[in-house]
Amino acid sequence: MTQDNQKRIITMAHGSGGKSSAELMAEIFGKHFKNETLDKLEDAAVVEVTSGTYSIAQIAVSTDSFVVSPLVFKGGDIGKLCVCGTVNDLLMMGAVPRYLTCGFILEEGLNIDLLDKIVESMAIQAREAGVTIVAGDTKVVEGNGGMYINTTGIGQIPKGRKVSSAGCKPGDVVICSGNLGDHHACILSHRMDIHNNIESDCAVLTDVVEGLFAEEIEVKAMRDVTRGGLGTILNEIAASSGVRIELDEESIPVSDEVKGFADILGLDPLYMGNEGKLIAVVPGDQAEKALEAMKASEHGKNSAIIGRVLEGEGTFIKTRLGATRRLDVLYGEGLPRIC
Known about the structure:
The protein is α+β, with helices and mostly antiparallel strands and 339 residues long. The protein has two domains: 112 residues, CATH 3.30.1330.10; 156 residues, Phosphoribosyl-aminoimidazole Synthetase, Chain A, domain 2, CATH 3.90.650. It is 29% helix and 29% strand. The protein contains eight helices and 16 strands. Strands 11-13-10-14-12-15-16 form a seven-stranded mixed β-sheet, sandwiched between helices. It has a five-stranded mixed β-sheet with strand order 3-4-9-7-8, covered by helices on one side. A two-stranded antiparallel ribbon has the order 1-2. It is globular and about 55 Å long. It starts with a strand and ends in a 12-residue tail after the last strand. The mean pLDDT is 93.
């Protein structure tokens, strides 16, 4: 954290999902809330439901807060976004999402018709995702007509499923479910008043995930590629599993429009946020079958095998020129408020 007159202060970088966010987690939240479940730092916590000494079921629990600006954007709004984001976090643990809670912090001056539209959007997306909103809370604060939403999700993990960022082994492959950077580019375009055809990829990824399990793929790890981008997510998986992950730059899917947008603004799609993309790590001998299953789904049609898991540590990328360079986690702010 930065020094200001000998005081450590929060900066926007602490919300980027990158190195500063990880430091904040370790130095403050992880220090005081430390426990075996939280320390795994997965997209959702996996906990046991017990009766006496017997385990009845495993459930996944995740909570997230959404502060995106603008509230409405091409391809979605904050209501749709909060359902998709929380449901996807549950899916990344192999869970079947069941329930959501929602907390609204509304700023004075917020247009009530806009609020109605966003809540309706949230309800529609929840129905499509097969989850029920079962509890909520509302607070009003002074401000300039904005709003923030916190959602908590609960899902049930089917017996036998075990998905973990610590489960990867040399010989596994990394598959990405589609083009990177769409959501980041969409939000930034709105904020900078840049006119283009880029839409957010905001979506629930049930079809991609269940497609893999329907084909009996042994999914080692899954993560949705949100804040911090692909580079940060894969560094976290490599560290959790104690392996080296090596990407092939030419295989990473990015649309031409997003690629051009990123080039103009000096952005790297490897660190751009998404709200409808995941990476799955599967055994090498199941890679083609897994890729076929993902491509057969609506939200995985642009899936690609982008890398492999090796002995060693860290995350690296083989460039189009044949060189290999190390990928670090996102450093600094890097992002607009994308979620």
